[in-house]
Every structure is written in C-alpha cells, then in structure tokens.
C-alpha cells in the first residue's frame, strides 16, 4: 500500500469516528470499548457455531485430499470411498471419546434391517454425529440422516455431508431410503427444540407426525434415542424473546450459543417400537414420545446441571442403567 493510500485510509477512519461521536454523543474511547465489548460477546456466544463449522471444513478438506491422492470420482457409494469414510468416522469417534467421554448403551437393540432412528435434538447435535460414527465402526452400517436444508448452504462442507449420507428430501424419497433396507435418523423437534429447549429436556414436537407416517408407510420400526447431558455441553439462547422471534421469522440457524464444556455424554438406545399396521400416525407419535421421555427420566437428572455433568466424567455412576 502506498503512502497516499495509507493517508487516505486514516482520513476516512478519522471522518467516520467524528461522525459516530457526533451521532452518539460519545467520545472515541467509549465507542471503542462498546465495539470491543460487542465483538467479545458475539465471539463468545457464537463459539460453538464457529468450532462446529470449522470442524466440518477441516474434515471436508481431509476428504478432498483423500479424493485427490487416490484419484477418486464423484460416486460416493463406491467401495473406494470406504477407507475415507472409516478414517473420518474414527476421527470423530475419538474426538467424542476424548472431549466428552462419549459412550453408547444399547447398540445391540438396533435391528439388522431398516429402521427410523428418532432422537432428542440438542443445541448442537454432536451426540448424534458421535452415535452414527460409533454405529458404523461397530456394525459396519452407516445411517442416513435428515438435516436442515440451511446446512447445505454452508460452503465447503458438501463432500462431507454427502459421504455421511446427510439428506434433506421429501416423504417419497425418505420412504424409499427405508425400503432399501437403510437406517434413517430424524429429530422431530428440529431446530426449534435445539434452540428453544431448556435443561428440563421437554420435547418440542408440537403437531409434527410426518416421521410416524413415514415409518408406517415404509413398514419399519422406530428406534428411540436419547443422549444424557447434551444440553449441559452446549446451551442455546433461543428462549430469549428476541432470539426466538428472529428464528421464527427467518428459520436461520444463527441463534447465539455458548458451551463446548467437556461434560459426560451417553447415548441410550431404547427398545424398538415395531411396525403395527393397525396404529395411526398420531398414536405412533405418542408411543415414540413416551419411549424417549422414559429414556430421559431414567438416565437424565432433571433439571440438568453443568457442574454435575462435568463431575460425571470422573466416576462411573449412571442413573439407572
């Protein structure tokens, strides 16, 4: 940058500062402290988002390196991608074990055929990611996962999402996935449950019953999942009226969060709810709710507590295994 460009930048900055001082009636150093405080707050409250996306970007970069090194094509269903999938699943699984002491209980309850995995949606669903990676490493099965369409708009993570069978599709495509013998994960509460829930872990499904109708039409069982302490590891501020209003108006996944605390995470697999041709979607929703709430009441101390969840890293006590 030349001397004249530097001088021009300084003049513009001085002019902007002068305008702000006149507009706000505050001196420069007060404006500086206010701006710095706002920047710090935004950094703290969006740290989980930033880490989450940065982690995706890093994994996606590893996949591109793997793809380039092995000269692979875009057919992600090819066996040639298995080593890459195994590599990333191992990294994610080890991270879960290292940071959260992550465990899965009841993996043997998952049937060999197709099934709909229905789980409680935490503020940041890292638990579900750990679960599907452990499922793959232990059984060789990789579940499909329904995710918010907004995630597909993030640049630089598309290869990772495709390799890990993330989908955002309609009812017919979802039924087809299940009829082809696959597992499919879904969180009926979605982003609203993630952002607006609290430490009492109440399900926020409202009138959603599409997942139940899909299970009935595909003639598959529902397998309930619940992760202990997921709301203690990550906390969202969606219960604040302004942020709730913002989400309801935009449906953007930008609600401030904080956390990343290394609390103990355990995912519990409940008994499958078998396919019943005589049950209605409404009745199946209630059965699924009851199953997840039973897992919650059995394994989660309510209301959740961050200090208690941290202490659980240091002992093997479990609430009624």
Characterize this entry briefly.
The chain has 321 residues and is α/β, with parallel strands linked by helices. The protein folds into 2 domains: 1-45, no CATH class; 49-314, Glycerol-3-phosphate (1)-acyltransferase, CATH 3.40.1130.
Give an overview in words.
The chain has 321 residues and is an alpha/beta fold. The chain folds into two domains: 45 residues, no CATH class; 266 residues, Glycerol-3-phosphate (1)-acyltransferase (3-Layer(aba) Sandwich). A seven-stranded mixed beta sheet has the order 1-9-6-2-5-3-4, with helices on both faces. The protein has a two-stranded antiparallel ribbon with strand order 7-8. The longest helix is centred in the first third of the chain and has 24 residues. The chain is globular.
Topology:
Elements: H1 3-24, H2 28-45, H3 47-70, H4 82-100, E1 103-105, E2 115-119, H5 126-139, E3 144-146, H6 158-163, E4 166-167, H7 171-179, E5 183-186, H8 190-196, H9 210-218, E6 222-228, H10 230-233, E7 234-236, H11 241-250, E8 257-259, E9 266-269, H12 281-299, H13 306-311
Parallel strand pairs: 1-9, 2-5, 2-6, 3-4, 3-5
Antiparallel strand pairs: 6-9, 7-8
Helix pairs in contact: 4-5, 7-9, 9-12
Pfam families: Acyltransferase
GO cellular component, one term: membrane
Keywords: Membrane, Transmembrane, Transmembrane helix
């Amino acid at each position: 940058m030349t001397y004249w460009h530097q001088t021009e930048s300084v003049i513009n900055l001085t002019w902007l500062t002068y305008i702000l001082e006149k507009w706000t009636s505050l001196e420069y150093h007060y404006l500086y402290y206010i701006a710095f405080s706002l920047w710090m707050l935004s950094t703290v409250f969006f740290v989980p988002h930033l880490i989450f996306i940065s982690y995706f970007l890093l994994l996606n970069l590893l996949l591109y390196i793997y793809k380039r090194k092995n000269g692979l094509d875009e057919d992600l269903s090819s066996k040639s991608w298995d080593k890459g999938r195994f590599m990333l699943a191992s990294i994610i699984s080890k991270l879960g074990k290292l940071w959260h002491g992550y465990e899965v209980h009841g993996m043997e309850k998952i049937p060999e055929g197709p099934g709909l995995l229905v789980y409680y949606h935490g503020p940041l669903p890292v638990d579900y990611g750990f679960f599907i990676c452990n499922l793959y490493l232990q059984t060789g099965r990789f579940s499909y996962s329904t995710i918010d369409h907004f995630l597909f708009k993030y640049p630089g993570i598309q290869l990772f999402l495709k390799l890990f069978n993330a989908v955002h599709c309609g009812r017919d495509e979802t039924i087809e996935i299940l009829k082809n013998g696959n597992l499919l994960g879904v969180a009926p509460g979605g982003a609203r449950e993630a952002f607006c829930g609290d430490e009492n872990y109440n399900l926020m499904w409202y009138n959603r019953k599409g997942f139940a109708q899909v299970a009935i039409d595909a003639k598959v069982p529902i397998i309930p999942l619940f992760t202990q302490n997921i709301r203690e590891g990550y906390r969202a501020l969606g219960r604040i009226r302004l942020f709730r209003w913002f989400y309801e108006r935009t449906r953007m996944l930008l609600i401030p969060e904080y956390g990343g605390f290394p609390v103990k995470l355990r995912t519990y697999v409940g008994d499958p709810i078998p396919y019943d041709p005589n049950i209605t979607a409404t009745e199946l929703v209630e059965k699924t709710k009851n199953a997840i709430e039973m897992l919650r009441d059995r394994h989660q101390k309510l209301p959740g507590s961050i200090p208690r969840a941290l202490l659980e890293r240091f002992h093997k006590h479990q609430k009624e295994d």
